[in-house]
TrEMBL record:
<protein>
    <recommendedName>
        <fullName>DoxX</fullName>
    </recommendedName>
</protein>
<keyword id="KW-1133">Transmembrane helix</keyword>
<keyword id="KW-0472">Membrane</keyword>
<feature type="transmembrane region" description="Helical">
    <location>
        <begin position="46"/>
        <end position="66"/>
    </location>
</feature>
<feature type="transmembrane region" description="Helical">
    <location>
        <begin position="111"/>
        <end position="130"/>
    </location>
</feature>
<feature type="transmembrane region" description="Helical">
    <location>
        <begin position="7"/>
        <end position="26"/>
    </location>
</feature>
<keyword id="KW-0812">Transmembrane</keyword>
<feature type="transmembrane region" description="Helical">
    <location>
        <begin position="73"/>
        <end position="91"/>
    </location>
</feature>
């Protein structure tokens, strides 16, 4: 079970950390997603600053997953991905995101890959939380 937990932590951290480039570099993908959410919500500032906020939370979660505060890291991952899944399903961004070429032109879509990754990270983090709670109960008994 220890290897499964470690593997899930590595998976979550990999997904979060590899996405930081997009969040912190002003990539067309991030500008599209968060700009659309900012317009939809009437919170234009979210289009400009939301990527930094989400990226910082994902970075903190990634670090915490490998400390004694791993449950907090899993909790942050579940919370962040709950928001991502909600926004994919119930806002104009939708499930399939535009794919951009190197000059920022739309050249297709991702076929829902970003949404699927959010769902997989959510499942992995939820499992880690469940296992942590289950382990806490076994220690008390």
């Amino acid at each position: 079970m220890k290897y499964l937990k470690t593997g899930l932590c590595i998976f979550i951290a990999f997904v979060f950390i590899q996405s930081l480039f997009f969040k912190f570099s002003g990539s067309p993908e991030t500008e599209f997603i968060l700009g659309t959410l900012g317009e939809w919500s009437g919170q234009a500032w979210f289009g400009k600053y939301g990527a930094y906020m989400v990226g910082i939370v994902e970075l903190i979660a990634s670090i915490l997953l490998f400390t004694r505060f791993h449950a907090l890291g899993a909790f942050l991952a579940v919370g962040t991905m709950t928001g991502a899944i909600f926004f994919h399903l119930f806002t104009p961004i939708g499930v399939a995101q535009p794919a951009f070429n190197e000059v920022g032109e739309v050249v297709g879509n991702d076929g829902g890959t970003l949404f699927v990754m959010a769902c997989l990270v959510w499942l992995a983090a939820a499992f880690l939380l469940y296992q942590t709670r289950k382990g806490d109960r076994e220690e008390v008994d």
